Amino acid sequence: MNSVIQKVEDRGLRKDLPEFRVGDGVRVHVKVIEGEKERVQAFEGVVIKINRGGNRATFTVRKVSYGVGVERIFPMHSPRIDKLQVLSRSKVRRARLYYLRALSGKAARLDITG
Prior knowledge:
Blueprint: H1 3-11, E1 25-34, E2 37-51, E3 58-65, E4 68-75, E5 81-90, E6 112-113
Antiparallel strand pairs: 1-2, 1-5, 2-3, 3-4, 5-6
């Protein structure tokens, strides 16, 4: 890639996000705009996918809310993400945890490492 383009893209990268991997339980604090007001809303779940790619990197978080699975894709370097907390780390052997979509209850748990 052209070094000038690389330098421009590197300026938009966030360095304040903690290190996290697929299978980790995270809480993402997202800035939400409602009319004139802005507030911070937390979205807590398991990271099932990470797409790398410089400033275009994204990660997908899955949670079960009132018995319905909800997935949300977050741009990793977005200014809309206020804070990201890693709550638990899990040992997984896959890069994509799509199989969690078909599981429910105790079957959907991941092995938590210390």
